[in-house]
Design brief:
The complex is a heterodimer of chains A (304) and B (396). With 304 residues, chain A is mainly α. Chain A is built from 14 helices and two strands; from the N terminus they run ααββαααααααααααα. Chain A has a single domain, classed as MetI-like (MetI-like fold). In chain A, 76% of the residues lie in helices and 1% in strands. In chain A, strand 1 and strand 2 form a beta hairpin. Chain A is globular. The N terminus of chain B is likely disordered. Classes of the chains: A mainly alpha (304), B alpha+beta (396).
Chain lengths: 304, 396
């Protein structure tokens, strides 16, 4: 009843704006993509058939509808390329998220235990890379990792290696790039959940006979789980669709689904298949997105 | 509380303590806890300043003081969360300063309870027992026992956020007592409860302490709480113990002017010793004329002193005590003035009297009759009187 009252009158109008935005800029374009994914590729402008022409009357539109098919989706299932790139995306996203968690948790834990005035500075240091363009930072990594780059120069000078090592165009370089780029998204939610934890809780655990390790695993870690899940999803979801980092840093022998999509769209000019890949990617993301949304809602309720 | 006698079983050591060497030879009369010249410094600030204190086994001891006086720091040193910079803390004659919190046979009840929010009531209470490696069956028995002790039956599966403030307080108490600590430390245990609940909980805590025989050390800034519950009170100020005494001694014979003012209400008049006679001193006060007081046991060395009278020792009347009244025979001190302020508190009424000399005198009198035709109102002229024995002489 109170909810209904809140959304009465002018407040209801205010709620319409975001809905309108979503319909115009998300739902309608998605309808286009869905329609294209059901069409056939053609050497034409636009490069697919059928094209709905509303000037030709109802019968023509009915005929156009009849031509739509799931052929592109059948192709996605039958051709290894798509399944493999889907799988690779999932693996890369999962492995990256695991590495991010292993690095991010200790950093966030240390930040939360700094004296209050240092916490703000630490937070700044985590955020400061965002002030430079993401693309420039990835190019900087290319510079560091390339054949005569900084890393090889240092390793050679220190006589750790005798010949330059191939770093660029490897999975290691890609993971490095992903972990580097997404670390703040992992650290910030973890830090938020660790910083708001009452220090008396770990004192109580140790007072009751828990060793420092037991205190961490029995009290601190379980209570930071909302932050862990939030950080993991915040990284996993965008990494799954990542295109730029694997394209610039990884080798060309295997592709993530974002790269496949780009290839179909720009190189093969196969809009219908590219659209089908886009729809599949979206479906892949629905589960983790729904999970994240539920978590956010629960935290909002808990905060109330 | 259940009716089983408290002493039926010996206190069981939950923590399998390593075999310790026999206590030192002079063990016979060592206190349970001895704090020896302990210093704790935070930066340049001395939170605890060369403080020494003995606490006997089975005692209910209160550390009382204003906020920032170092009482919580002292408690945290006993729990092991802070290490003393100097001095020793001896439990049963053995220095526990090097022991980490989880190695000490001491438990603490935290100010905001610090219950684990992800664990049920049962698991909160069992937490310390599990860490001690107690067999599961024994844990179940002990937890049930603790739940009965604090009357939380039926709430075992609740999470802390499904409990009321009073219930949380009981869980915290049960959790801290479950390991049967040698000493239970309580950090402002009742501060988060409302007044009614606080009073009933005070009584329960006292009964519990007597039943279990566990030594309780409570930190509080609430003097009523300390007075009601504790066997002895240590009053702290600026890192030092100002006085350690029973509640009655503390109130009726405060060691200093600061304590007299800190504990309860008091009227203070500064003055000089004008004459000394057998058992009596006459103090010429600056604001209230001459006051005759009983000579204290310790001889007064200074000339400038303060006379202190608790408000309830000051009686008001319209004409002053009748000289032939036996009760009033000693009422040598008579001060006249006008009532300026009346505060009716139910059980008693407090009065402020502006003396003819200009000073203010506070009095409080019990409302012993339901209908008091003799009640005073502002502007009434009264005589305030008290005996020499009702007065204290404080040097500092």
């Amino acid at each position: 009843m109170s909810a209904r009252r809140i959304f009465a009158g002018p407040a209801r109008l205010a709620a319409i704006a975001p809905c309108l935005w979503m319909v115009l800029f998300f739902l309608v374009p998605f309808g286009f993509v869905l329609k294209i994914s059901l069409s056939q590729t053609a050497v034409a402008q636009p490069p697919y058939l059928p094209v709905f022409d509303f000037t030709q009357g109802l019968a023509a539109i009915k005929a156009a509808f009849a031509v739509l098919s799931l052929d592109n989706y059948r192709l996605l299932v039958s051709d290894n390329l798509y399944i493999l790139s889907c799988l690779r995306s999932l693996v890369v996203a999962a492995v990256s998220t695991a590495i991010l968690l292993l690095i991010g948790y200790p950093v966030a834990y240390a930040m939360a235990r700094l004296p209050q005035r240092w916490q703000g500075i630490a937070m700044m240091l985590v955020i400061v890379p965002f002030w430079t363009s993401f693309l420039i930072r990835i190019y900087a990594w290319i510079n560091i990792l390339q054949h005569d780059g900084l890393l090889n120069q240092v390793l050679l000078a220190l006589h750790i290696v005798s010949a330059p090592v191939v770093w660029l165009s490897t999975d290691s370089a890609m993971y490095l790039g992903i972990v580097y780029s997404y670390l703040p998204f992992m650290i910030l939610p973890l830090y938020a959940s660790l910083a708001k934890m009452d220090p008396a809780l770990s004192e109580a655990a140790s007072d009751l006979g828990a060793s420092p390790q037991q205190t961490f695993w029995l009290v601190t870690f379980p209570l930071s789980l909302p932050g862990v899940v939030a950080g993991a999803l915040l990284c996993f979801i965008p990494i799954l669709g990542e295109f730029v980092i694997p394209d610039l840093l990884a080798g060309s022998d295997s592709m993530m689904i974002g790269q496949t999509l780009w290839l179909e769209f720009f190189t093969n000019k196969d809009w219908p298949v590219a659209s089908a890949v886009a729809v599949v990617l979206l479906v892949l993301l629905v589960a983790p997105l729904a999970l994240y949304d539920r978590l956010q809602r629960r935290q909002l309720e808990a905060a109330r | 509380m259940t009716d089983e006698p408290a002493t039926s079983e010996p206190p069981l050591e939950v923590v399998a303590e390593p075999a310790r060497p026999a206590p030192p030879a002079e063990a016979a009369d060592i206190p349970l806890l001895r704090i020896e010249a302990v210093v704790k410094q935070f930066g340049g600030f001395r939170a605890v300043d060369r403080l020494s204190l003995d606490i006997r086994a089975g005692e209910f001891f209160a550390l009382l003081g204003p906020s920032g006086c170092g009482k919580t720091t002292l408690l945290r040193m006993l729990a092991g969360f802070e290490t003393p910079d100097e001095g020793r803390i001896l439990l049963d004659g053995w220095d526990i300063a090097p022991l980490l919190p989880h190695e000490r046979p001491v438990n603490m009840m935290f100010q905001n309870y610090a219950l684990f929010p992800h664990l049920s009531v049962r698991d909160n209470i069992a937490f310390g027992l599990k860490r001690a490696g107690m067999p599961a069956a024994d844990i179940r028995t002990r937890v049930a026992e603790m739940i009965a002790l604090v009357k939380l039956e039926g709430l075992e599966k609740r999470k802390p956020d499904q409990l009321s403030g009073g219930q949380k307080q009981r869980v915290a108490l049960a959790r801290a007592l479950a390991r049967r600590p040698r000493i239970l430390l309580l950090d402002e245990p009742l501060a988060a409860l409302d007044k009614k609940l606080r009073e009933s909980t005070q009584a329960e805590l006292m009964a519990l302490q007597r039943r279990l025989g566990t030594t309780f050390i409570i930190v509080t800034h609430d003097q009523d709480e300390a007075m009601t519950m504790a066997d002895r009170i240590g009053v702290m100020d600026r890192g030092r113990l100002e006085q350690v005494a029973t509640p009655r001694q503390l109130y009726e014979a405060p060691a200093s002017r600061w304590i007299a003012e800190f504990v309860g209400d008091i009227n203070l008049f500064e003055g000089e010793v004008a004459s000394r006679e057998a058992g009596r001193l006459v103090i010429a006060t600056r604001d209230a004329g001459s006051i005759v007081v009983a000579a204290p046991l310790q001889p007064i060395n200074k000339d400038v002193v303060a006379v202190a009278i608790r408000p309830e020792k000051v009686k008001l009347s319209r004409r002053g005590p009748a000289s032939d009244d036996a009760d009033h025979a000693h009422a040598i001190n008579r001060l006249e003035g006008v009532v300026t302020d009346v505060g009716y508190l139910g059980g008693l009424t407090t009065y402020k009297v502006k003396l003819d000399s200009g000073a203010e005198l506070r009095s409080s009198m019990a409302n012993t009759a339901r209908i008091d035709i003799d009640a005073y109102s502002p502007t009434h002229r009264v005589v305030a009187w008290f005996t020499p024995d009702d007065c204290l002489v404080l040097e500092q």
